[in-house]
Amino acid sequence: MFKKVLLSLAMIVSLRAHAISGLVADSDSTAAVGLIMMDISQIYVVDTTVYRTRSSRVVYRTFRVFTYVPLFLAGLVVLDDNGKMTFGELKAQKAQEAGITADETLAYNEELEELNAIKDMVSSEVATLEGSKEVKAEAAKELWSEYRDYVSEDAFNALVKLVRKTL
Amino acid sequence: MGERVKQILLFIFLGLFSLSATAGNRVVMLVSLDPETNRPPLRFRSWDINEKLEKLFKRKLKKENLELVIIPFVRQTELRNELLNPSNHAVFWVGHANRADSLATAGMYDDRGFNLKEIFQEVHQNIKFLGLVGCRALPFIQGLKEKGHWDLNSHLSFYARDKKTDARKGLKRAIKAFLNFKEKPAPVCLEKELLPITVRRKSDSKLSAARILRKGVLVGTFEEDQDEIIIYLPKGLKKSEYKLTFESGAPNNISPELFNLGRLEFESLNPELSWKLFADREGKPLGFGAHVYRFTGKLNNQLITKPVLPNQCNTN
Questions:
Q1: Is residue B2 one of the residues assigned to a domain?
Q2: CA-CA 20 to 30 A from B171: which of A3, B32, B114, B271?
Q3: Looking at the 3D structure of chain B, how many domains does it have?
Q4: What is the ipTM of this complex?
Q5: Contacts of B290 in chain A (CB under 8 A)
Q6: Strands B67-71, B26-32: parallel, antiparallel or unpaired by DSSP?
Q7: Is A40 on the interface with B (CB under 8 A)?
Q8: Where are the domains of chain A?
């Protein structure tokens, strides 16, 4: 119950910040949701909010998304575009920083194409949804939960750790 | 009689001269911009970026002895054909682009937003100059070089910048760089022993242009509605390195009805080589705009190979 209240509170706080894409709580797959939601046409910042209870300390991260303002230069046709996010090869140093084991690193690099395929699928399905960013984030989370079985556990764990570290 | 022979010789000489004046002088400008979305503010609807670029291209190069070719709305097939056209001396590309950063990969986009960047991995050796007019295209070229995609193009001069680029200003600068570049000798091309694989694709509806990549390396392209190609893979790799990605370059926010990859089937002189589509339990491919084919075959030292000349050197 308390967690629900906190979540609602965090959402209200975030909504006051005008834009919110997702909330990272304690689910493994939710960590990836925020990243998937991060359309590269948008600039995001991460707010960390700490709530203290009598017995513990709960941290909620809020992703505030600002729509990227297109650059209109009078008379110019600027040949810029927004890239597509792609998971790249994981190097040993970055893996170590993110707490990813050697086996997980190996699995991640070997299943990179599959991870990107799933990411594209989640991203495209979410893009077709109507509704708020929160609704889309929730849908993305469900899709990741559904598709995670198609890659090895090690590869998925590496992805989640990497996303957490990146964000 | 002697006079007649002289006339014939003169005719042949002039004929050869005129031929040599145009051979290898084909300069192509490839444009892939949608005029509707690339019109500066406060302009009439008749303002067309493609027309502006065409006029500029012709005006700047009219005094040179060049065969000028302009192709608008370029997509994968046209880009591939022109980058591997042995008659081309120089190629200019004008389109949207972005550099890679911590979250996004680099991209060179067509007018629909399809990423064509992998197509630039193979450039024919006869092309001596490549002008990439797009935002922050320089790191993209540096990436191609670092990854070894342009090892056979070390003589290639290029124009690109690591800045936001205006189409017309960028083209002017690229043409200036082209008019001042000096030709360098091309590296030697050698045949390689590779594994030939026949790839067929099937679908009930119209097929889109797409390409096959192996660990990010371009190994083959399908034109629209083309249903069979031969790809060549190196031997001696690990199993996971034979995994293939079949992609259209489509952005994730496009309707899936706007492109169709079809399903691939593989046939080889080596029957032990096989691939399986990465799909869900119902057999539906997992992925959007790109499908993954996992290698399921067996590798041994007895695989039959074939000597193949790289596309960059092929004169056919």
A1: no
A2: B114
A3: 2
A4: 0.82
A5: 116-117, 120
A6: parallel
A7: yes
A8: 2-166
- Chain B residues with beta carbon closer than 8 angstroms to that of A40: 103-104
**One domain for residues B223 and B133:** no
In the block, which residue shows the tokens 């991640």? A108
Residue of chain A whose Cα is closest to the Cα of B36: A77
B209, burial (CB in 10 Å: exposed 0-12, middle 13-18, buried 19+): buried
Which of chain A's residues have a Cβ under 8 Å away from the Cβ of B253? 124, 127
Distance CA B178, CA B157 (A): 8
B155 close to B185: Cβ distance less than 8 angstroms: yes
Clarify whether residues B174 and B200 are in a common domain: no
Q: Is residue A46 less than 8 Å (CB to CB) from chain B?
A: no
Query: Is the domain of B199 the same as that of B297?
Result: yes
Burial grade of B247 (CB within 10 A; 0-12, 13-18, 19 or more): buried
Residues 54-113 of A with CB under 8 A from B: 71-86, 88, 110, 113
Give the pLDDT of chain B (316 residues) as one tens digit per residue. 456 656 555 444 444 444 344 447 999 999 999 999 899 888 899 999 999 999 999 999 999 999 999 999 999 999 999 999 999 999 999 999 887 665 556 789 999 989 999 999 999 999 999 999 998 889 889 999 999 999 999 999 999 999 888 999 999 999 999 999 999 999 999 999 999 999 999 999 999 999 999 999 999 999 999 999 999 999 999 999 999 999 999 887 788 888 999 999 999 999 999 999 999 999 999 999 999 999 999 999 899 999 999 999 977 6
Q: What domain range is B292 assigned to? A: 192-308
